[in-house]
Design goal:
Elements lengths: L1 E4 L1 H10 L4 H16 L9 E2 L8 E4 L4 E8 L2 E9 H4 L1
Parallel strand pairs: 1-5
Antiparallel strand pairs: 2-3, 3-4, 4-5
Length: 87
Amino acid sequence: MKIQYHREFRKSYNKRVARYPKLELQFKKQLAKLIINPNDSSLRDHKLIGKKKNFRSFSVTGDIRVVYIIVDNNIWLYDIGSHNQVY
């Protein structure tokens, strides 16, 4: 699988994550887990509903989530932030 970054994700990442080294490290760990084993229970991965019904989400920390979609065996990251920011 190849990781792709949507421009909105890059903006959110720079604003909400990049300034915090511990959070950035945790994001990288969780992303690696997603690539290796998408069914890892620590990801708390789930399908979204409503307007974002084609997307999925996984947890970075207790409140930080990543919204993504899998297209042609590529993972497209669309947004990152707190529960309220991404949903």
